[in-house]
Amino acid sequence: MKTKRVIALMLAVLACISALSVSAIWTGQVATEERASLTAGQIALFWVNTSSVSCTLNFSGNKAACSAIVSGMSGTTKITGTLTLYRKSGSSWVCVDSWSGSSDSSVLRFSESAMVSSGYNYKVVVNASVYRNGTWETVQKDSAIKYCGE
C-alpha cells in the first residue's frame, strides 16, 4: 500500500514537471557578459525571442529612478511590458507604483520615477512579452534590492 502511494506521488511530480514549459534553448554562443560567469561544462539557458533584459533602481534622496530595457532578437515586431516598483514590508513585497509600455520595434525602454519613503528596501521588476516569428515569449528581470536611507 505504501509503495503505491510513493509511486503515485512520483508520477504526480513527474506530471507537474513535464507540464512546465521553458522558453529557452541551449546555444554554443554565450553573450559576452554571461561568458565570464560560466565555467567549462556549464549549460546556460537563453531566450528565443529576447536578446537582453536589464532593470535598474537608483535613489536621489527619496526619489526612486526606475529604468529597464528589453531588447528583442532580429525580427522582433512588438514588445509589451510593465515596470513595477516594490517596497519590502515584513516578509512580502508591496507594489508602490507601476508603469506599462509597448513598442512596435525590437526595443522597449522604461525610464520612470516615484517618490518613496526612506528606511525601506526597494526593487523594480520588469515583465515583458516579446513577439517574433509568430510566437510570444514572456521574460522577467528583477533589479538588485536597494535600501533608501536618506
Describe the secondary-structure layout.
Elements: H1 2-19, H2 32-35, E1 50-60, E2 63-72, E3 76-89, E4 92-103, E5 107-115, E6 120-132, E7 135-142, E8 146-148
Antiparallel strand pairs: 1-2, 2-5, 3-4, 3-6, 6-7, 6-8
* Separation, N- and C-terminal Cα atoms: 62 Å
Strand-and-helix sequence, N→C?
HHEEEEEEEE
Output the CATH topology of the domain at 49-148. Answer: Immunoglobulin-like
Q: Outline, from the CA principal axes?
A: extended
The level of helicity is: 10-25%
Q: How large is the share of residues in beta strands? A: over 45%
**Overall average pLDDT:** 83
Radius of gyration: 20 Å
CATH fourth-tier homologous superfamily of the domain at 49-148: Immunoglobulins
Number of strands: 8
Q: Give the CATH class of the domain at 49-148.
A: Mainly Beta
Largest sheet: 5 strands, antiparallel
Query: Which architecture of the domain at 49-148 would the CATH scheme give at its second level?
Result: Sandwich
Unreliable runs, pLDDT <50, ≥5 residues? 16-36
